[in-house]
């Protein structure tokens, strides 16, 4: 058996060292040949409330987290945007809340429809950009018409982006939208109060609006209805209501037995909420009943700030009016008086002259719009078809009703006192 030469051991030693070095170099070359990890660019959707009167916005360009191993020293973006609805300022915002703040140099070039943003740091003794939870940078712009509503109103696109040797995937465009806020703050409401008939024949209900003031509302359309077999609308009252204010260029209100509807157009935006209009009702039966009012329509102008409209209907209830069974008289029927009936206030002597236009008994009843009876007396006959009643004191200016008893019916006629 031969012994190994001392020189051959040294050869094997140095050969092992050489092979190990070659393997290390190969592994390093393989590692360097691996592509840098891909980066994904995303942009946000910026929303404006149509009522905020805000035009400017900041649009973030997000690139995800950057690590030291990513070795990011520069970024170059090519942008385009919807010039019909967006004005984009020719600058890049890299505050301390952005990753781009770490770049020492920024440059912006542009034409009327596109922009190139370059950011970088010389690699000599440079530190790569690192961080998480921050956008790369912000773009600043404004919406040309912030009161335009509907859809995605404008877009900003990163058409291409280079971040050193990283592949970049551009996921989406940034969108700017002007929307209506549907929270309670921007919800308009129309409600109708309840009516309660006791022995009263007449009652009033109030249409009330809420959250219309200071919401760019200058037009209101409404319609309400009821079952006219129980009661009927007979008139409206504007005194002390928004409809009675001198702000309206159009005031078109219609009344039928089962419906009241109207359109109100103001010269300027509403600055108050509350009672919009009062409605006068007359019951048509002495029987007890419960029936509903229905708000059929509630619309405001398109350019208002409101994102939602709600309505609340009311209810009318009535107790039975008992007839005198011992009299043998049938239950009275109630109807509106014809044009032949005229009521003439004669304020000088605190009286009413009533031209009945037919044969009615001498009993006269006077009600206010709440159904409260103010007077009940036998009328003084001063002609074949004319009666006179006297007040102890003339009532205040307003709308009233006179009731004339005939055979098995009471006829009502509206009149107005103006002092």
Q: What does this entry look like structurally?
A:
- With 419 residues, this protein is mostly beta strands.
- The protein folds into three domains: 141 residues, Immunoglobulin-like (Sandwich), CATH 2.60.40; 135 residues, Sandwich (Immunoglobulin-like), CATH 2.60.40.680; 85 residues, Immunoglobulin-like.
- The chain is built from one helix and 32 strands.
- A six-stranded mixed β-sheet has the order 2-11-9-4-7-6, with no helix packed on it. A five-stranded mixed β-sheet has the order 5-8-3-1-10, with no helix packed on it. A five-stranded mixed β-sheet has the order 16-19-14-12-22, with no helix packed on it.
- A hairpin with a 3-residue loop joins β6 and β7.
- The longest helix is centred in the N-terminal third of the chain and has 28 residues.
- The chain is rod-shaped.
Low confidence ranges = 26-34, 325-335
Q: What would CATH call the class of the largest domain?
A: Mainly Beta
> Counting H and I runs of at least 4 residues, what is the number of helices?
1
* Percent of sequence in beta strands: over 45%
Q: Tell me the Rg in angstroms.
A: 42 Å
Reconstruct the topology from this structure:
Blueprint: H1 6-33, E1 39-43, E2 45-49, E3 56-62, E4 74-81, E5 86-88, E6 105-110, E7 114-120, E8 137-143, E9 154-162, E10 168-170, E11 174-179, E12 187-192, E13 195-197, E14 202-210, E15 219-225, E16 231-237, E17 248-255, E18 259-266, E19 274-283, E20 289-292, E21 294-300, E22 308-312, E23 315-318, E24 333-336, E25 342-346, E26 351-355, E27 363-368, E28 373-378, E29 380-383, E30 386-390, E31 398-405, E32 409-417
Parallel strand pairs: 1-10, 2-11, 12-22, 13-23, 24-32
Antiparallel strand pairs: 1-3, 3-8, 4-7, 4-9, 5-8, 6-7, 9-11, 12-14, 14-19, 15-18, 15-21, 16-19, 17-18, 20-23, 25-26, 26-30, 27-28, 27-31, 29-30, 31-32
């Amino acid at each position: 058996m031969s012994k190994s030469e001392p020189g051959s051991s040294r050869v094997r030693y140095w050969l092992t060292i050489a092979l190990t070095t070659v393997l290390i170099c190969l592994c390093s070359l393989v590692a360097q040949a691996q592509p840098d990890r891909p980066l994904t660019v995303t942009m946000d959707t910026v929303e404006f409330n149509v009522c905020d009167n805000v035009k400017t916005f900041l649009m973030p360009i997000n690139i995800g987290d950057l690590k030291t191993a990513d070795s990011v020293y520069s970024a170059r973006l090519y942008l385009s945007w919807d010039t019909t609805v967006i004005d984009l300022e020719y600058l890049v915002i890299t505050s301390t809340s952005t990753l781009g703040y770490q770049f020492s140099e920024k440059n912006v070039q542009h034409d009327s429809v596109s922009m190139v943003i370059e950011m970088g740091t010389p690699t000599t003794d440079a530190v790569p950009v690192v961080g998480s939870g921050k956008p790369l940078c912000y773009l600043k712009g404004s919406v040309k018409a912030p009161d335009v509503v509907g859809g995605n109103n404008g877009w900003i696109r990163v058409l291409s982006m280079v971040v050193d040797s990283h592949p970049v995937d551009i996921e989406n465009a940034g969108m700017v939208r002007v929307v209506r806020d549907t929270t309670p703050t921007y919800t308009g409401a129309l409600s109708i109060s309840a009516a309660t008939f006791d022995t009263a024949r007449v009652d009033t209900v109030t249409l009330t609006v809420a959250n219309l003031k200071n919401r760019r509302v200058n037009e209101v359309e409404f319609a309400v209805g009821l079952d006219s077999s129980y009661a009927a609308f007979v008139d409206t009252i504007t005194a002390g209501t928004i409809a009675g204010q001198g702000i309206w260029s159009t005031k078109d209100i219609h009344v039928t037995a089962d419906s009241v509807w109207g359109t109100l157009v103001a010269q300027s935006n509403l600055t108050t909420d509350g009672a919009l209009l009062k409605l006068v009702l007359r019951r048509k039966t002495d029987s007890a009943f419960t029936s509903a009012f229905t708000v059929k329509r509630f619309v405001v102008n398109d350019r208002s700030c409101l994102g939602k409209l709600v309505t609340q209907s009311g209810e009318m209830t009535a107790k039975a009016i008992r007839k005198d069974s011992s009299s043998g008289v049938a239950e009275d029927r109630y109807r509106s008086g014809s044009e032949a009936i005229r009521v003439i206030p004669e304020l000088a002597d605190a009286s009413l002259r009533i031209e009945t236009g037919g044969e009615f008994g001498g009993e006269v009843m006077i009600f206010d719009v709440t159904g409260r009876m103010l007077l009940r007396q036998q009328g003084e006959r001063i002609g074949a078809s004319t009666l006179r009643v006297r007040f102890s004191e003339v009532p205040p200016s307003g709308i009233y009703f006179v009731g004339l008893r005939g055979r098995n019916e009471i006829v009502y006629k509206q009149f107005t006192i103006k002092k």
